[in-house]
Write a structure and sequence with these properties.
The protein is α/β, with parallel strands linked by helices and about 260 residues long. It contains seven helices and seven strands, in the order E-H-E-H-E-H-E-H-E-H-E-H-H-E. The longest helix is centred in the middle third of the chain and has 29 residues. The model has no long low-confidence stretch (mean pLDDT about 95).
Length: about 260
């Protein structure tokens, strides 16, 4: 198993991305500590993981609260003997559907501020323990929005750019301590797209889209004519967190089905 004996903390562990990563990590033998704002949904994920290899635990943690993040990381490290993997998958409160000319600064800046605060706090908390043991992996997730020019996405693209830039800075400061900092870059994830029936923004196409139209529009932008699945994301995350990816840092895995060029 890729992660046997490893301890992983997943922030946003009850979300669709966090849940997929938790299942993949548990299958590969990791002890999984799920953190988020709603304990009931975290406990549901923990129940799904029951019987998997390693420890599964949940905790209510606000990833924007420095004290809460530090205290949780300290508790995990004390219980497990250290932290090997920290993956921040929390949402950022993005606002889509309006051009920047018509968007309030608060709506534009909210995802940027949320991502930078949470990524900084969770990385710092885990890294303080990882530096003592001389190893560890810090992980984040971004998407094609950070590399493609798409209208009406507000601060989302800037947010993903900022996450990757911050990850590179952490990587250059933590590398001497044996800590890798990496991210996964995906397409839109079909299983995570709202299925309530609400209309989606035009994103420069000229008319609002249904869910089916949105997914078809995204697929047409990929070389494989398909989108990344949550299962693929989880499998790639497990590999990236493992020693098999030990030469990778300050870099991301391109899971965009060819939507974002590699050169």
């Amino acid at each position: 198993m890729l992660l046997e004996g490893k301890t992983a903390v997943i922030y946003g562990g009850a979300g669709r991305v966090g849940r997929a990563v938790a299942h993949a990590f548990a299958r590969e033998g990791a002890g999984v500590f799920l953190a988020g704002r709603t304990l009931a949904t975290l406990d549901q994920v923990a129940q799904e993981l029951s019987g998997a290899a390693g420890t599964v635990a949940t905790a209510r943690v606000d990833a924007l609260d420095p004290r809460a993040v530090d205290e949780h990381a300290d508790a995990v490290a004390e219980r497990a003997g250290g932290i090997d993997v920290s993956f921040n998958t929390i949402g950022h409160g993005d606002v889509h559907g309006a051009p920047l000319l018509e968007m309030s600064f608060d709506d534009f800046f909210r995802p940027i501020a949320t991502a930078m605060r949470s990524q900084f706090l969770t990385t710092r908390a885990a890294a303080r323990h990882m530096t003592r043991q001389g190893s560890g992996v810090i992980m984040a997730i971004t998407a094609t929005t950070g590399r493609l020019s798409i209208p009406e996405v507000g601060g989302t693209g800037v947010t993903f750019d900022a996450i990757e830039s911050l990850s590179r800075q952490w990587a250059c400061e933590l590398g001497d301590h044996g800590i890798r900092v990496v991210w996964l870059q995906t397409t839109g994830l079909p299983e995570a797209v709202d299925d309530s029936g609400a209309a989606f923004p035009a994103y420069g196409t000229g008319a609002a889209m249904t869910r089916a139209e949105l997914l078809a529009w995204m697929r047409r932008s990929s070389l494989l004519d398909r989108l990344t699945s949550l299962a693929e994301l989880g499998q790639a995350a497990a590999f990236l967190a493992s020693d098999q990816a030990g030469a990778m840092t300050a870099a991301g895995i391109n899971l965009t089905c060819g939507m974002v060029p590699t050169r």
